[in-house]
C-alpha cells in the first residue's frame, strides 16, 4: 500500500484549512478514503481517485524546474509508493527518479502542499479524478544534470511561464516581488 490513507488525509485536511474555497473540489478524495476505511478496502470498481505527488522546484534565480511531457512542459509527477514516508517524500523521490537531482531541500515552513490540482485522469487511467499534490522545494540551478537540459528533457522556466495559480502561490509563499 502506498502512503497510508491517514497521511493523505493529514495533507488534505491541512491544505483545506489553508484553502477553504477549494474544499468542495477536494471532498471526493476525502470521501473515497473514508469509504476505504469504513469498508476495509476499495469497493469503487477501479474508479477511486488517483493520488499523485510532484515537486515544484525553484532555483536561486526564482525559476521553476519543468520537464518535457508530450507537447508541453510539466512537473515530475508520480504515485506514492509503499516506502515513501509522506506525500512530500513521494514528491522528492519522483523528482530524483525523473532528474537524478541531489541537493534539493524543503523550504522551512512549507511542508504542506502548495497546491492540490484536481482534474480528470488520462483515459488510460480510467474514468476517475486525479489529485496532484504539489510540494515546494529549492535547489541550485546547477543541481539539474546538464544532460537533461542538453537533451531538451528539462529546463528552468520563469515563474511567469507556469500555471497562474501555481505562480500566485509561489509568489505568496516565498514573498517574491511581482
Give a nutshell description of this structure.
The chain has helices at residues 5-18, 23-39, 87-99, 146-150, 164-174, and strands at residues 50-58, 63-69, 72-74, 77-78, 105-106, 115-120, 129-138, 154-158. The protein has 178 residues and is α+β, with helices and mostly antiparallel strands.
Average pLDDT rating: 88
The CATH homologous superfamily is named Nucleoside Triphosphate Pyrophosphohydrolase
From N to C, what is the helix and strand string?
A: HHEEEEHEEEHEH
Q: State the helicity in percent bands.
A: 25-40%
Number of strands: 8
What is the CATH class designation?
Alpha Beta
Query: How many helices?
Result: 5
Q: What coarse outline follows from CA principal-axis ratios?
A: globular
Q: Examine the coordinates and then state which fold CATH places here, giving the name of the CATH topology.
A: Nucleoside Triphosphate Pyrophosphohydrolase
Largest sheet: 5 strands, mixed
Tell me which CATH architecture applies here: Alpha-Beta Complex
β-sheet strand percentage: 15-25%
Organism: Streptomyces inusitatus
Protein name: NUDIX hydrolase
Amino acid at each position: 500500500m502506498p502512503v497510508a490513507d491517514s497521511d493523505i488525509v493529514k495533507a488534505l485536511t491541512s491544505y483545506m484549512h489553508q484553502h477553504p474555497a477549494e474544499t468542495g473540489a477536494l471532498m471526493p478524495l476525502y470521501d473515497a478514503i473514508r469509504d476505504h476505511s469504513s469498508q476495509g478496502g476499495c469497493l469503487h470498481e477501479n474508479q477511486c481517485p488517483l493520488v499523485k505527488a510532484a515537486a515544484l522546484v525553484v532555483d536561486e534565480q526564482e525559476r521553476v524546474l519543468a520537464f518535457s511531457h508530450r507537447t508541453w512542459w510539466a512537473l515530475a509527477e508520480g504515485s506514492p509508493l509503499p516506502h515513501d514516508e509522506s506525500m512530500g517524500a513521494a514528491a522528492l523521490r519522483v523528482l530524483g527518479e525523473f532528474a537524478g537531482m541531489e541537493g534539493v531541500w524543503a523550504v522551512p515552513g512549507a511542508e504542506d502542499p502548495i497546491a492540490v490540482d484536481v482534474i480528470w485522469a488520462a483515459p488510460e487511467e480510467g474514468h476517475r479524478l486525479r489529485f496532484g499534490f504539489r510540494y515546494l522545494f529549492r535547489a541550485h540551478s546547477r543541481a539539474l544534470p546538464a544532460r537533461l537540459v542538453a537533451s531538451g528533457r528539462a529546463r528552468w522556466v520563469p515563474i511567469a511561464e507556469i500555471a497562474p495559480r501555481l505562480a500566485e502561490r509561489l509568489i505568496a509563499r516565498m514573498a517574491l516581488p511581482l
